[in-house]
């Protein structure tokens, strides 16, 4: 697994729950509490151990924590801009998620995101990512954050190995401002 994934877990833990939670979780997971090496390939089990330890400390399950991390990552300015390039509305964003893996490789060649299959439903989509439960919940968190970002009311449900996205109201709220040409528009 790319170090960027574990670094994201670290930054989420530090910014959301504080340095003490990060230090305790990292120590218990056998990770250097001073921080995760960003550009090194790391064993997949490292992320699982970190999620398990942080979740235990904050009182939630690892999948719930992964969902929170997915939502948090999607709102980081640089990641949000990359995600918003996928489309001018939520429908465009979701229907191009099958291209996310390739787009991520344009930014970081060795970042392995799961392939995502997108199928239309009457009021939304069924997403079937080729991944485990943790990635599934992280993707659901990203979808929640991006629906809010676009101002769409979306009901996002994990059912088995798929994510169902139901959009009962497209113009639910005003979306956050965004401009491709001006990175400061909509910056948090």
UniProtKB/TrEMBL annotation:
Signal sequence extent: none
Listed InterPro entries: H-NOX_domain_sf, Heme_NO-bd, NO_sig/Golgi_transp_ligand-bd
GO molecular function terms listed in the Swiss-Prot or TrEMBL record: heme binding
Domain Heme NO-binding residue range list: 2-120
SUPFAM superfamilies: Ligand-binding domain in the NO signalling and Golgi transport (SSF111126)
The protein's name: Haem-NO-binding
């Amino acid at each position: 697994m790319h170090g960027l994934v574990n670094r994201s877990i670290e930054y989420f833990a530090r910014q959301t729950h504080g340095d003490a939670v990060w230090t305790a979780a990292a120590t218990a997971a056998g990770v250097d509490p001073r921080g995760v090496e960003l550009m090194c390939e790391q064993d997949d089990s490292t992320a699982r151990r970190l999620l398990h330890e942080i979740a235990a400390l904050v009182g939630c399950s690892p999948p719930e924590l992964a969902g929170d991390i997915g939502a948090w990552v999607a709102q980081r300015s640089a990641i949000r801009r990359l995600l918003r390039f996928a489309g001018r509305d939520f429908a465009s964003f979701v229907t191009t998620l099958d291209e996310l893996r390739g787009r991520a490789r344009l930014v970081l060649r060795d970042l392995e995101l799961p392939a995502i299959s997108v199928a239309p439903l009457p009021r939304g989509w069924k997403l079937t990512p080729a991944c485990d439960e943790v990635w599934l919940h992280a993707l659901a968190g990203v979808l929640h954050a991006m629906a809010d970002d676009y101002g769409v009311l979306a009901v996002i449900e994990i059912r088995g190995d798929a994510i169902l996205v139901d959009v009962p109201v497209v113009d639910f709220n005003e979306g956050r401002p965004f401009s491709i040409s001006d990175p400061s528009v909509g910056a948090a």
